[in-house]
Amino acid sequence: MANVKCNPDLVRERAKCSFDVNELIHLIDGGENATKEKRHFEETIFSVKELQDAVPEEYLSHKDRYENAVRKATILRDVCREYMKKYNYKPNRFRVGHGVFKDVSPFLLHDGMFVATIIGQGTPEQQAEWLPKAENMQIIGTYAQTELGHGSFIRGLETRATYDPKTEEFILNNATLSSFKWWPGGLGSTVNHCIVVAQLFINGKSYGIQPFIVQIRDLNTHKPLPGVKVGEIGPKMGFQTANNGFLGFENFRIPRMNMLMKNAQVLKDGTFVKGMNEKLTYGTMVMVRVGIVGDCSLNTSLAATIAVRYSAVRHQSKIKAKEPEVQILDYVTQQHKLFIAIASSHVFRNVYSWLSKSYLNVMKDLAQGKQDHLPELHATACCLKAVCSRDAGSVVEECRLACGGHGYMTSSNLPLVYGFTIATVTYEGEQTVLLLQTARYLVKAWLAALQGKVLAPSVSYLSDWLKNDNVRWQNTPEGIVKGFQHVAAGKVKAAYDTIQKYIKLGKDYEDAWNLASVQLMKASEAHSRSILCEVSWGEVIRTSASPNLLQVLKQLAQLYLVYWTLETSGDFLVYSNISKDDIAILREKYEELLAAIRPNAVGLVDAFDLRDEILHSTLGSYDGRVYERLMEEALKSPLNQESVNASFHKYLKPLMEKAKL
Ligand SMILES: CCCCCCCCCC/C=C\CCCCCCC/C=C/C(=O)SCCNC(=O)CCNC(=O)[C@H](O)C(C)(C)COP(=O)(O)OP(=O)(O)OC[C@H]1O[C@@H](n2cnc3c(N)ncnc32)[C@H](O)[C@@H]1OP(=O)(O)O
Ligand SMILES: Cc1cc2nc3c(=O)[nH]c(=O)nc-3n(C[C@H](O)[C@H](O)[C@H](O)COP(=O)(O)OP(=O)(O)OC[C@H]3O[C@@H](n4cnc5c(N)ncnc54)[C@H](O)[C@@H]3O)c2cc1C
């Protein structure tokens, strides 16, 4: 990238960067070698001609766009397979995926959830049967759980799998419209297999939801098998190339061994054998929620890179009347909009790495029959997924708005990035629903704290606060982290007390819960924010980096702490010992941090190391040729391929002529 002829503003910005951009790239990637490998892989992918689109995707019809995405997905699969064989390298498909598809691969659910569910829910024999076929794409699958009538409340799913001991088969049925599967990615026209989550019935008795692996299309003709009704759900806000679909069964039989039986089992005679914990059936969702926190980091870095580079190139208005128009990045309001995006991406990355480690530890425990830490993992993954996805959505939208009119252009890529980022707020557990899951855990933890019990590490601050809620406020990062814990503890207590109040007024627990649920949701958000602050600050101070880089990383981490303290200052005034004077000091600190980060802004987004092919943006490319690219892309419009469009002769001219009469 270094030899590209760049916009002079970007050249100047890069020259004033105070840290070594390559050092930060290596830190993010996990070492210099990892960067080399990543770049070599990406270079290979983006030099494949067939993966490059001659015409921007947006001009294609819905059908052509899908077909083009499948074409590219298959080429990408082949290239990756060869590459992995040759270099023994496991690439991050998500980064290049953004480059190849702009939106989402029709194989997303195959890689992200179908294969993962076979691994997580299948017995060793079942894995041996399906995993090799799934991994080498002999079969293509998705994860079909959500139905027209139920997505959040999965105990309410209606798809039925009724066991027939005579034939040792399950009979799948979707008797009502609301029971039809609706949403699974790739289901529309791509996959031939599904993990179907259905209610198990044996001898008329319900045994809860279980995962089944089901072939739905013929492997040669791709026609739906008899008894299967399947199709695509149509255009959406984003995810256009994900090929989301619907599915229903009518007396469709599958062998007994197609129920994934790592947890619960159905024996030949129809005996149901319970698993260690019925919630382990939800395991794939926990894994993906963890992954989404990492995805939020990537999505935020995409938007930040585009908006910061554009803001360095774009000049508009003046700060001082007699001086030239300034780079819009010099407006402190612009810095306020954008630097939190850079900081959030780092926070999400650090927290993702922390959460992934917890996830892997719990998986190891489960393999040994220990499930003590599962509730804590579930609670933590739920609230972090909810808060990070919503923050990422807001940050991406703020970046888009920060690019003014040009941010509204599809060619900026910000609308697309927003489309797939905001989807993470809903899928894999709608945000409020997940926050309320965490609230269940917090309320239990609060009760345990009141009883003087030892709490799990992520909630131990509740006991600390009970012992001493009167800690003096300190305007240091550690003091702010403590402050977030006080806010969370105060909110958990208030929500708990509210439930108790309603119970005393004669409400039963469920109604009291519902009445207190806004407070419960907010308590859960505050808990999540305190984890984000504590973990990310902790990771930064433990980072080994050169003094210059460490200084910049600390500035970003502090910016995140101060930004969110100021954003939620009302909560701090209610639940911590912060004073108005402290808030004034923090405002000043915030302005200092914006000024300190300003010279490094372009260097910081360069360090996300997102190639132009991944950014896909007229506004965000490395060389900053913004206006040229906007014009070049506009000229690709089919309407610009003819000097006069047929509609002139057909409609406009007759209209004008009628007007003359
Ligand atoms: C640095 C940059 C790196 C970049 C890296 C990028 C990495 C990117 C990686 C991306 C990773 C993967 C991408 C994959 C592809 C993603 C595409 C996904 C597309 C979308 C797919 C979907 O949406 S699939 C469908 C998802 N659906 C849901 O999520 C449904 C949500 N609902 C539920 O989960 C449940 O209904 C709910 C939990 C809300 C309630 O369940 P229920 O059975 O009713 O339980 P309750 O009665 O409420 O609770 C009973 C107790 O059970 C506990 N519990 C609930 N769930 C769990 C669980 N999962 N584990 C453990 N325990 C659980 C609950 O806490 C209760 O306990 P209590 O003690 O009684 O209180
Ligand atoms: C882009 C995209 C891709 C998807 N891909 C897949 C896929 O591959 N496979 C799959 O199976 N599914 C998929 N889904 C479905 C997704 O998992 C669900 O849409 C999601 O879990 C939310 O469920 P819902 O649609 O039923 O929302 P609802 O539950 O109907 O939510 C509507 C409102 O009700 C509120 N609400 C619901 N329950 C409660 C409660 N208990 N307390 C308080 N408020 C509540 C919610 O907060 C929300 O405000 C996808 C969805 C999207 C958008």
Give structural notes.
- Keywords: ATP-binding, FAD, Fatty acid metabolism, Flavoprotein, Lipid metabolism, Nucleotide-binding, Oxidoreductase, Peroxisome.
- Residues 20-140 form the Acyl-coenzyme A oxidase N-terminal domain.
- It is found in: Peroxisome.
- The protein is an alpha+beta fold and 661 residues long.
- Among the domains are: 110-275, Butyryl-CoA Dehydrogenase, subunit A, domain 2; 435-453 and 473-599, Up-down Bundle (Butyryl-CoA Dehydrogenase, subunit A, domain 3).
- It has helices at 8-15, 21-29, 32-46, 62-87, 93-101, 108-121, 124-135, 283-313, 332-367, 374-402, 414-426, 431-450, 460-467, 477-504, 509-515, 517-542, 547-567, 569-575, 580-597, 601-606, 612-615, 626-634, 646-660, and strands at residues 141-144, 160-164, 169-173, 181-182, 193-202, 205-215, 228-232, 245-249, 252-255, 265-266, 272-273.
- The strands form three sheets. Strands 1, 2, 3, 5, 6 and 9 form a six-stranded mixed beta sheet that branches. It has a three-stranded antiparallel beta sheet with strand order 4-8-7, with no helix packed on it.
- Strand 10 and strand 11 form a beta hairpin.
- The chain is globular and about 90 Å long.
- The structure holds ligand LVS2NKGU and flavin-adenine dinucleotide.
- Flavin-adenine dinucleotide is lined by residues 109, 142-146, 150-152, 183-185, 239, 244, 423, 426-430, 432-433, 436.
